[in-house]
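Sample A.
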Amino acid sequence: MNTRVLAARKYLKVFDIGLQNTFVYRWNFFIRSIFSVVPLVGTVAIWGAMFQTRGAGIAGYEYSSMVFYFLLTMLVDSLVTPTEDEWQIAADIREGQISALITKPINYLHYRLCLFGSYRLLYTAVTIVPIALIFFYFRAYVTLPRDPRTWALFPVSLAMAALIQFFIAYSLAMLAFWILEISTVVFLLYSFEYFLSGHIFPLDIMPASIQTALKWLPFTYEMFFPVSVFMEKTRGAALWSGLAIQAGWLLATWGIARLMWSRGVRHYQAVGG
């Protein structure tokens, strides 16, 4: 049988195992999606008060478009953000379970990527109904894209955002080869990521000089950029250059993930004999 077919079957089996393992927590997914509306309601209320006090738009956003922005961030976050992947990988390394995987004919990065994909697929399947209900409740603020190209480019940007986030989480977890506890490093990086990726506010309301600096950081392309693509706030040359930079960060984080693994395994084998 063709080697590629065997490899595909092997990773499809890993994907299936990931689905079975995570399906145990389907009610946890559902409850989490229900409670995700709480910060959304709070955010909408805060921005509503700001717009009412100001009596005008903010950096090109009206109240309706601001609500739609945060609806989309909730959706994108549920679709692409890794959940505990770095902790699971670090636990594999710290507890020695990685030894069994190193000796098997399997690429650990591909193995974890399959598990990540299965987790996101199941999470989306379980939470899609509550999220759809939330969108329906706020339907007056929803504006669908008019350009057909947006419908084609948004999934591409979304997929790259998911992979960038996964490779960053994977690379962070690789630090467990050298340090016992990675929580401090993870907390520090994710604090910056949460602030600079557009979770708290749209990045394009910031001063132009700061926007220019953020344009070259990966955080922009984890959340804000896909949302701005769907809202059609990023168009023309800015859209294509943004996709190019996002693709560049995808390749860079993939390369860093592979480098961290190869260096970490050599260190692990040297220490463990």
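Sample B.
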Amino acid sequence: MSNQKQAADPRMQEENDQSSAGLVSAFFAAIGEPIVYVTRTVKELSALFLVTIKYVIAGKRRPDEVVAQMFEIGNRSVVFIAVTLGFLGMILIYQAGFQAMKITGDLTLLGALFLQLLMREFGPTITALMIATRVGTGMAAELGSMVVTDQVDAMKMCAAEPIEYLVVPRFIASTIMVIVLTIVAVLISYLAGALTAYTAFDVNFRTYFDLGFVSYFDIIIGLTKALAYGMTIPIIACHAGLNVFGGSEGVGRATTQSVVNASLAVVVIDFIISGLGYVVLALF
């Protein structure tokens, strides 16, 4: 019995060591896999962005396709953006006014502060998130379907560069229309807030429409964010679509990946531009 117990102890110790080693390996794999995925994705997105910029500058001009994409991205998103930002403006003004009435009772700066917040943050960022949801998924699904049905491979066989013909028009159209939609969103949200302030708190329109807190810095920050979002969303969506594999299931994964990555990119870019903006502002 003693000999059998001594023989079993080394085997048990070896199994415990292997189990511990497996747990350690699984732990580092769980940490390293997302890092490798993010690094590879950022590298691929950067390469796609540089190639797209090259074709924007030196590629063939296709104004008809750009206009068609502008209509798809901009015109078909106006109602969606207007309703979303309109209700957001009403909610924010009501909540801010309600809290101000409880604390100070002074609502004279309600409109001025809200406009500054809209231009810096809510206008471009919420618009970009809505565009990533509505337009980004469409781009990823459309390009993914073309990959699955071998249309992209057929373009390559005909010596046509898919990035030039598929990505560039969407890139140009998105860059322009996100800026336009951001301006529209700010106006609609601000006007909806004015109606809410007048109806709920009896704030005079002359008091509400105060531009005293808005500076050129706020306008530049807002437009810079809109420009960055407009360039980022089509790159991420088209990258997801062009890398589809696995048939129709792959198209579904691409649309989900497009929304998740584009939304995360919008939040990260918002943080970076806002941080850099306040650093630059502090220098003056």
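B remarks: Residues 63-277 form one domain. The chain has a mean pLDDT of 85.
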